[in-house]
Amino acid sequence: MLRAAKQIAHHRGTNERITYLCSKIVTSTSNSYYSTLNQKTYKGGGKSNGWSKYFLAPRGPKGWTIPPSRGYGMIVARVLRGALKLRYILLGGAIGGGVTLNKKYEDWKDGLPDFKWLEEVLPKDEKWTRFSKALAEFGSSVKDVIEIDPRLRQLGEDKIAEWRRWFDTRLDDAIEAADYQGSTLNESKGEIKAKTTVTALSLSNDESRRKYEALQSQVENLQTEVINVQIKYQRELEKMEKENRELRQQFLILKQNKKTSTKKIKKSLIDMYSEVLDELTGYDSSYSMADHLPRVVVVGDQSSGKTSVLESIAKARIFPRGSGEMMTRAPVKVTLAEGPYHVAQFRDSDREYDLNKESDLSELRREVEFRMRASVRGGKTVSNEVISMTVKGPGLQRMVLVDLPGIISTMTVDMAADTKDSIHQMTKHYMSNPNAIILCIQDGSVDAERSNVTDLVMQCDPLGRRTIFVLTKVDLAEELADPDRIRKILSGKLFNMKALGYYAVVTGRGRKDDSIEAIRQYEEDFFKNSKLFHRRGVIMPHQVTSRNLSMAVSDRFWKMVRETIEQQADAFKATRFNLETEWKNNFPRLRESGRDELFEKAKGEILDEVVNLSQICAKKWEEALSEKLWDKLSNYVFENVYLPAAQSGSQNSVNTMVDIKLRQWAEQSLPAKSVEAGWETLQTQFLMLMEKARKSPDHDDIFDNLKLAVIDEAIRRHSWEDKAIDMLRVIQLNTLEDRFVHDKAEWDHAVKFLENSVKDKLDQTEHTLSEMMGPGQFTRITHWKSLTEDQSKRRHVKYELDKILRTDEKHLPTLSYDELTTVRKNLQREGVEVDTDYIRQTWFPTYRRHFLKQALHRAHDCRKAYYLYTQQGTECEISCSDVVLFWRIQQVIKVTCNALRQQVINREARRLDKEIKEVLDEFSEDEEKKAQLLTGKRVLLAEELIKVRHIQEKLEEFINCLNQEK
Questions:
Q1: Edge-to-edge strands, sheet with 387-393
Q2: Which tens digits make up the pLDDT trace of 758-770?
Q3: pLDDT for 229-275, tens place per residue?
Q4: What fold characterizes domain 295-544?
Q5: Cβ atoms within 10 A of the Cβ of 382, count?
Q6: Where in the chain is the domain with CATH 3.40.50.300?
Q7: What is this structure's pTM?
Q8: Beta bridge partner(s), residue 402
């Protein structure tokens, strides 16, 4: 309006034009005022003298006509003009100033640094408090466990201090800018200071510490989680590496356009023998049966140098080391073989470690340590799980060695209580193998009387027919021990134990960084220059150096292999024959199927049942969904919608209350309940398909446990799509808006639905009353039953309440105070004392039964009242609002079931199929899970038969190659 006034004033440029504008404004906005003005007289009463005609007459751009007498009307116009001008000047100034201030504020605000990242980084107060306490406790605990380099700690503290100074500077600059512009950011400043204060206090909080046992448990749990995650990703990495190699090979084949002939790679004898040992270990992990094939068992006291002896034989430092700490926590089987390259490889991995590269050696040692810690579970210190690896290289002697944890005499506080006994038992098990070569390691730098291993060796091999004694650290023994004492040890005269041979070796100079070449050179130089070992008669030349030791052990190993391999093959041949006979007697018509084969068969059957979900007809889906949906909704419809509305009073109030409650229901809980019913129906139908498959004649009950576990896990993970709830809410709200029954058939279905629902609820009420009142007279006589005291009281109260309902059939749902008093007094006359709560408890089911019976009568009357309802609507003589309500509920159930059925067929069945496949893939990788779910005599016998047959075939293959080599 102000802009229009300015334009007109600019084009016309006179006071009269402003007057004309004001008159037009007055004319357009206040017709009532000008009509009153025209009716007034000017200066002295009487009728209007026509002034309003001049004032309101239209004027052209050039036809400005001023009345001859500038009277009262002109003065009013000028006053209005001045008032409006002053008003719009003030309004324009306020608006312009506000716009300018707002623009200045936005420019200043854009210049400030963005602090929104603080809200994303810093959590809420309670979460931040819990996190800071946990972080402080974990930091204080880890600080006691992990030693941090002081230089690294100082560097980290300097970096943190520098970051804090930078952050404080930026924060102070922002706060000063906010104070300069105004006080609008005072609250933000306080919040930022509070957050930084809380952060600083939380970061510096180290007051709370846990006890040592809790700390140890926390660290072990964390290590276990890290180990499990690393194992999982290690498997995935190895799987991807294998697939990558296969794809690369296929690519090269396609590129060269050549057909490859599948040739069997010829393995070395020692590799074949190592595989046989691995198969035997998996077949008999307790070492209590026929696992008697030769191997070299390296035993000795802790820190006696047994691991160093094995590394010297393997010509590589392949094991982790620690300062006085137990590093060997599990048996390590090392297969030595000759090859062109010096490499190492784990049995369950395809990766090869180049032992000539220090980086690969470091990774190999880390992997060995990781596998050892992964094998130790449940708070144990040592484990029986064997870590198998192969080492190949030029000049290596072919043999299989097993490095065992060192024997200890005293346990530390960080060890499990059974560590000492576990090591002794494990060592005895390996040495009790009658064909095991015992490599007994004795530390030459300590007194022989302190040895623990010699007693164990004498118990397992008293005649010394398979024991080789090795004296380590003889370079230190030369300085400390008596030469005659060393001579007695190496000649077998100091200990009572006997051995096939006695050897002296040097395992290093105590330096962790020394290579095997440096250690071997130091050993050769020592034995060349040693005065002790150059004296005549002290030692024989073939009894020194690791090279001579490895050759002697290898010769003895292969001699024992040739002597015993035929016996072991015959033993497994007999075992295989016995198992096959047992299988034929118990399962004559079945093939020997292992767990992997059975799992694949069960997997196919489960996925077939998922496909069958889509074959269920639409009618069956909707019937099942409708039944499940009404089962979930019926209680709410009666208790929260129908009964409160029907018992409220007049017909109009009933309809209003029904509309309100139905809308609230559709907006809040109805969509979620519908989705819940759909999910339970999908689950039920799937289980019914599985049960139907179980009753078929071709069903194999060995898969039942696996199928149920897979389905339960998939169902537990499955959740309905979130957008389905919003879609159902819109459909249900639109359906409930329809309040008119369209035809007679729908009316009849609604009446039937009402009658069935009321009858079900009436049966429940009758059952409740029966429990409260006790059995009837006929039942008491025929079944020799009697009423309890409470049931007798209930009968008297119900008799009085029935009289009230007979008197007033349209009684309200509640009893008045006078009625309660009357019932209680009548009962007192009969000698029954009850309180008002007792009467109300009996009144509730009594009145409900009375009301439901009346509802059934109304439904019967409404059955033939459809045409009367269509003509009179809500003013119908017969009240049929119950039928209309249940018709609306019925329509909602119908459209909901249709939507859920489409969702199940189009989306949920496929999503369930995907989740079942994921569960099956996880179970296929979990051997423990498969062994738990696929069990029974049939599975166990088949598994054992398959393993024995496989081992026997490998033994025969190895024997054939061994005979050819002769």
A1: 352-354, 343-346, 387-393, 332-338, 399-403, 295-300, 436-443, 467-472, 501-504
A2: 999 999 999 999 9
A3: 666 666 676 667 666 766 765 665 555 544 433 334 456 788 888 77
A4: Rossmann fold (3.40.50)
A5: 25
A6: 295-544
A7: 0.52
A8: 297, 333
